[in-house]
Amino acid sequence: MSERKFVIVDGSSLLSTCYYAVLPREIMFAKTEEERQKHYDKILHSENGTYTNGIFGVLKATASLLKKQAPDHIAFVFDKTRDTFRRKLYPDYKGTRSATPEPLKQQFVLLEQILEDAGFRVLYDSQFEADDYAGSLVMKFRDQIPMVVMTKDHDYLQLVSDEHNVRAWMVQSKQEKADELYNKYYAPYGLDKRSVNLPEKTFEFTAEHVFAEEGVWPCQITDLKGIQGDTSDNIPGVKGVASAAPILLNEYKSVEDLYEAIHDVKEDKTALKELQDFWKNGLGISRSPYKALTKTEEGEVCGEAAAMLSKQLATIKTDIQIGLSLDDFSVSYYDESKMREWCSRLDIKEESVFGK
C-alpha cells in the first residue's frame, strides 16, 4: 500500500477497547452493576476524579499511529447515541446492549474535546453512527488518496475496495489472533510484522482477506448480515440459515437475487424441488434453508422481511454531506503540545503516551 494514506479511526470502538482493556479485576468479575459501581474509584483517574483509563489508551495509540504509520490525513469518527435513524427502522436495533458505564460515558465527551483541541477533525451526529461517517469519508475521498479504516467492527469490511485502494485495519481482541493472521497470510511471502508496519493487534484486510475470512466479498457483507444477522447490534437476520449464507451468496451474489430465484419457483412444485436439490447436491447445503428463508408469521420479523430489513440496518451510509476538503484532515494541523497539555491536566505521564 502506498505510504500516502488517509486513516479513519473508529474512535468509539478504540475508546471502548482501551477502557475495558485495563479495568480493575474487581469490576471485570463483578456480577451486578451495583458491585461494579463500588469499585469505580479503582479505575485510573486524575487527582480531581476524572476517569482517564480509556483516554490514556487512545492517546497512546494515536501518538504511536502518527509516529510509526505516519498517515498524511486522519479523522476520528464517533457514535453519539444509539437512537439513530436505524432505531426508526427497527426499534430493537442494539436493544440487547447494556447501558454504557458512567466512567466510560464521561470519557467519550472529554476525548472528543481533547482530539479537537489537538487539531484533529472529529465527526459525530445524533442521526448517524461512526461507521456512517467513515463510509461517507471513504466515498468522498477514495479517488484522491489511499484510505484505511481502523476499527474492531466487522461492519466496516463492506468499505474495503482493492479497486479504490481502501483497506481495513481490523483491531483484534488479542495479539495472538493478529499473529495468527500474520502467519497465515504474510509468512508465506516472507513478510513479518515489522515489514508490514501496522498498529499493535491489527491486521490489514484487503478484499481477498475479507473473502478468505468471511466467505464473501466486501460488497456482500451487508447481504451476509442480512441472512446471518448480527447479535452485537441485535440485527435479526434469518434464523436457521447462518451456515448456508456464504454458500448461497457465492451462488446468487445478493439477498435480492437469492429471493428472486426463490420467487421464480415457489408456485411450481417441480421447479422448487429442483432448486432444493441443487442447493443440496450442487452447493453442498445438507439442510435446506428454504422454510426459514420463506417463513412468514404475523407479529414476527422473519423470512424475506427479516433479510431485507437486516441488510438495510447493516448497510453503512456513504452519502452524508461533509463540507470539508481533504486538506482539512491533514495531520499538519496536529498540535502535539496541546495533547501534552491535556496529559498534564489529567495527570497522565507524558512519556507513557509519547515515549522517551
UniProtKB/TrEMBL annotation:
TM regions (residue ranges): none
Keywords: DNA-binding, Hydrolase, Nuclease
Record bears the keyword DNA-binding: yes
GO biological process: DNA replication, Okazaki fragment processing
Domain 5'-3' exonuclease: 4-332
SUPFAM superfamilies reported in the protein's UniProt record: 5' to 3' exonuclease, C-terminal subdomain, PIN domain-like
GO terms for MF: 5'-3' exonuclease activity; 5'-flap endonuclease activity; DNA binding
InterPro entries: 5-3_exonucl_a-hlix_arch_N, 5-3_exonuclease, 5-3_exonuclease_C_sf, DNA_polI_H3TH, FEN, HhH2, PIN-like_dom_sf
Database matches in Pfam families: 5_3_exonuc, 5_3_exonuc_N
Superkingdom in the source lineage: Bacteria
Cited PANTHER family: 5'-3' EXONUCLEASE FAMILY PROTEIN, FLAP ENDONUCLEASE XNI
Function of the molecule: 5'-3' exonuclease acting preferentially on double-stranded DNA.
The protein's name in its UniProt record: 5'-3' exonuclease
